Hints:
This protein is globular. It has a domain of 202 residues: Dipeptide-binding Protein, domain 3 (Roll). The chain has 13 helices and 19 strands. The protein is an alpha+beta fold. Strands 1, 8, 9, 10, 11, 12, 13, 14, 15, 16 and 17 form an 11-stranded mixed beta sheet that branches. The chain has a 4-stranded antiparallel beta sheet with strand order 4-5-7-6, with helices on one face.
Amino acid sequence: xxxxxLGTAAMAAMMVSGSAMARDVxxxxxxxxxxxxxxxxxxxxxxxxxxxxxxEGLTRFSSDGSVIPGLAESWEISEDGLTYTFSLREGxxxxxxxxxxxxxxxFSLDRARAExxxxxxKALFGNIATVEATDxxxxxxxxxxxxxxxxxxxxxxxxxxVAPESIxxxxxxxxGTGAFKFxxxxxxxxxxxxxxxxxxxxPARLDGATFKFISDPTAAFAAMMAEDIxxxxxxxxxxxxxxxEADPRFTVLAGNTEGETILAMNNKLxxxxxKLVRQAVSHAIDRSAIIDGAMFGxxxxxxxxxxxHNPAYVDLTANSEFxxxxxxxxxxxxxxxxxxxxxxxxxxxxxxxxxGEIIAAQLRAVGITTEISNLEWAQWLEQAFKxxxxxxxxxxxxxxxxxxxxxxxxxxxxxxxPELQSLISDLDVENDPKKRVAMMQEAQKVIxxxxxxxxxxxxxxxxxxxxxLQGIWADAPTQxxxxxxxxxxx
Length: 490
């Protein structure tokens, strides 16, 4: 039975009343979420607005990418690595006033792993055998096999804890436990959050926040220069950054992301079901020209689906070095000496639209003609991600440490390799750090040498922030604009 948590609003208000500088902030984003349920869509734009701000998980990512306690204040792991006993924080309430209890955790994890689950990262929960509420503040999760990255998985936005009572309206009215409450969504324009005065942890120093959606790079530049917005997270016009760097009103943050930007190939659609064709595409691509032309030098070349700042990274860019003549020879060997025509479907981000034009020209030079379609985000999700209706597409995978997607034959690029699937299964249950590194490095080599996709660059996070605004993350260990520690300088 849920019970209302009363009497904390006044105390929380007293805790924040001493900050005379607390006020609102307006954050610019290029992409608008398709809806507001992070547990039932692959769109990173949902987490950008809601992760940590509105929704929280048992664990969470810190700004440096480490996993720290979230709604679980502590946990114990059995010697065999199969049982995780989470102790929940006491005095945590959802934004509707109901108290978080173990039953909400059971509901959330069971919903995420259910047969009919629409969770975009359902595989994160595939190793869970049972979830049980021992008492109101204790949850026992039993795994079917040890899983070295289980606590890491529980920090994803797809694993946040939701209340059963909120599910019917969660896509339009999200109710979480975070430091901010959802206030308003003006579709096509903005989402507004307000401070949660009943928050269980350190109260937010901001009164509220508005996320303003500006897809056009020119409009983003104008809004920032006019100070209509206070920060633009992932600024979409890198050619303008030098102007902001020279303006004392602003600070430019250039950090790392988990975003492997790839030219994805539909591995089950001819001719991309032929490894020689995929290899030819990879050798036709000049990464440096794309980074310089589309990103104005921001970005790090990659040769596999792995972040260069990760200690397990292997530099495999030589496997697909720019070599148009080799690309032509491979196409001829595959039976396409005269080339072929395919689709190139591009979502809204600048790296895709600008990069797509450059890649189309590079492919044309070796005989591959692309029919470009510029899609809105919802269209891309429906056609490419869900419908697998594409030949080529460009997207940045900003989920943390997500090489495991290559072990899912039904994933949108439809790569089916039983040997890699076995390797990833072994990685999932391995606890030894050295063995895990070796397995991750082997996985990188397999997909690089099989030319599953053409690996372009690691997306850099370039944000423009008002000079007196503090606490915006420079790096992006997950897809989040975490405002819980953001404040204005006093």
